[in-house]
Design goal:
The chain is α/β, with parallel strands linked by helices. About 35% of the residues lie in helices and about 20% in strands. GO terms for molecular function: glycosyltransferase activity.
């Protein structure tokens, strides 16, 4: 028996030099480790313009076209052969996997990073997912969820019969690159998020609007990120007279350094699988204020390394912030050790590499 040597990794993900986060570091570390073991990897991303961080990887860019179609067309036109296909951030159980198998790929691994809506899927989508599970799951050899929450929803969405080939590999981060918070910046908060409605940042603005002036005037919140909801959030910030509190900073490739300047991360999200932002914040020894959705409760324990509230409950969020400012609530213990021990990048890479080592053609 011989081990597979040629791997394609297809990611519905944009590589951006001003936003280098946990997944970017994973891609590079995984590529390095796999090559050390004799594997040859081609990467397919939604969009990529060359920059130094990715200089050692073989990358093909779909130039913002459909990355699945781009991959299939390139394989067909250039008569490429791959032993293994791994997908990240793609929809599961679609015809793409059947078409990919038809190119001669022997092993298909689908990694699910996709959060589910707070209110669940409509009935029509529930039915369609069940049908897709029956039709296309046979072409996928392994499903990987990035949290127990994600694994549960893979089985719920596509069929419990997939349990035998559905596993969990938690996201991990390179904890060594994070500057640790050592001083208390009591009322400095940070948001690190794509700016879209489902991230719930509008609830943060509502929560702040409820605070009395003497509380609000002590608070500073920096928002790092970009996205389609930014105009609405800026409008709300202005309407609630929060311009002296909320500061939109755009994307940054230096979050691993700047997180240590804050005392809490705010993440009022409605949907999450397993948040890299939370891992990064905790790695910087910065506690987290977040909701009970997705895999958040697999990382954050209320009153231990952060504070938990129910999604959309901006009244509760307002109370949490008020109590922090008034000194009634605080997380004073160090919160980075769990991330360093359980959710580190090396462990994540090793678990994905183990899939390859355990598979023989």
């Amino acid at each position: 028996m011989i081990k597979p040597t040629k791997i394609a990794i297809v990611c519905n993900y944009v590589l951006n030099p001003i936003r280098i986060g946990g997944m970017d570091r994973f891609y590079v570390a995984y590529d390095t480790k796999a090559k050390e073991l004799g594997y040859d990897i081609d990467w397919y991303f939604l969009e990529y313009n060359a920059f130094d961080f990715y200089s050692g990887l073989t990358i093909y860019s779909a130039n913002n076209q459909n990355v699945e179609s781009f991959f299939l067309e390139k394989v067909r036109e250039e008569h490429l052969h791959y032993d293994v296909l791994v997908t990240h951030f793609l929809a599961l159980c679609t015809s793409f996997f059947k078409k990919a198998r038809a190119t001669g790929i022997q092993q298909l691994i689908a990694v699910d990073h996709n959060p589910r809506p707070l209110e669940g899927f409509p009935l029509s989508k529930i039915i369609k997912n069940k049908i897709k599970g029956i039709l296309y799951s046979p072409y996928i050899d392994q499903f990987i969820g990035v949290s127990d929450y994600t694994r549960k929803h893979i089985l719920q969405d596509y069929g419990s019969f997939l349990a035998r080939k559905t596993n969990v590999i938690y996201n991990g981060i390179d904890t060594s690159v994070f500057v640790k918070r050592t001083q208390e910046n009591k009322n400095k908060f940070v948001v690190c998020s794509h700016l879209r409605y489902s991230k719930g940042i509008q609830d943060l603005l509502k929560a702040l609007s409820l605070l009395k002036s003497d509380i609000k005037n002590q608070i500073m919140i920096d928002v790092f990120g970009e996205g389609p909801y930014e105009i609405e959030l800026r409008t709300m910030t202005n309407d609630f007279d929060l311009n002296n509190i909320i500061h939109f900073k755009g994307s940054s490739s230096r979050l691993n350094e700047v997180l240590s300047n804050y005392n809490y991360l705010l993440q009022p999200t409605y949907m999450e699988c397993f948040s890299l932002s939370i891992l990064e914040s905790l790695a910087a020894n910065v506690p987290v204020i977040t909701t009970s959705v997705g895999g958040n409760l697999e990382i954050v324990e209320h009153n231990k390394n952060g504070f938990i509230f129910e999604p959309k409950d901006y009244l509760a969020l307002s109370e949490i912030i008020k109590n922090i400012v008034e000194g009634n609530n605080a997380i004073n213990n160090e919160v980075n050790f769990q991330i360093e021990n359980d959710f580190n990048l090396g462990k994540m890479v090793d678990q994905y590499i183990k899939i390859l080592i355990n598979y023989e053609l």
